[in-house]
Specification:
- There is one protein chain.
- The chain has helices spanning about 5-25, 35-40, 40-50, 75-85, 90-100, 105-110, 110-135; strands at about 55-60, 65-70, 100-105.
- It is mostly helical and about 140 residues long.
- A 3-stranded antiparallel beta sheet has the order 1-2-3, with helices on both faces.
- The protein contains 7 helices and 3 strands; from the N terminus they run αααββααβαα.
- Helix 2 (about 35-40) crosses helix 3 and helix 4 runs antiparallel to helix 5.
C-alpha cells in the first residue's frame, strides 16, 4: 500500500471517529431517575452548585450508584502522573477516591463492579483529556 493511500485511509478513519464522538455527545441522555430516588434532586442540585454548576459524574453499575464531582485540571494531572507511576488501575482508584461525593461502596469493594467503574471512568477521563488538549 502506498504512503498516500495509507494516509488517506487513516484520515478517513480519524474523520469517522470525530463524527462518532460528536454524535455521541449530542445524543447522550442521562437518566438521572435512580440518582434522584437515591440522593434527591435537592441534594444533586446542591452538589452541582457546590462545584461551580459543572456537570457531576454519575456512575451506575447494576443497582449500585455513585456521584462524583467534576474533575479539575489538577485532578487530570494527578491522574496522568499516577498512570505513569502506578499503572492504570491504581490511577483510576485514586481519581475515583479524589472525586467521590457519595455512593455505594460495593462499586469499589467488588472486583466486577470496580471493572465497570474502571471502564466508565477511563472513558470519562479520556474524553476530558481530549477536550483539554483540543482547547
Amino acid at each position: 500500500m502506498s504512503n498516500e493511500k495509507l494516509t488517506a485511509v487513516f484520515n478517513s478513519r480519524k474523520a469517522k471517529e470525530i463524527k462518532k464522538e460528536k454524535e455521541a455527545k449530542n445524543t447522550q441522555v442521562k437518566d438521572l431517575t435512580p440518582f434522584i430516588e437515591k440522593f434527591s434532586q435537592k441534594k444533586l442540585d446542591e452538589w452541582k452548585k457546590e462545584y461551580g454548576n459543572r456537570d457531576l459524574i454519575y456512575l451506575k453499575v447494576d443497582e449500585f450508584l455513585a456521584v462524583l464531582r467534576p474533575p479539575l485540571a489538577d485532578d487530570l494531572g494527578d491522574y496522568l502522573t499516577a498512570i505513569g507511576t502506578n499503572g492504570m488501575s491504581k490511577a483510576v482508584a485514586m481519581i475515583v477516591e479524589q472525586l467521590w461525593i457519595d455512593g455505594d461502596f460495593q462499586l469499589i469493594e467488588d472486583e466486577d463492579n470496580f471493572i465497570a467503574v474502571f471502564l466508565q471512568m477511563n472513558n470519562i477521563l479520556e474524553s476530558k483529556k481530549g477536550e483539554f488538549f483540543r482547547a
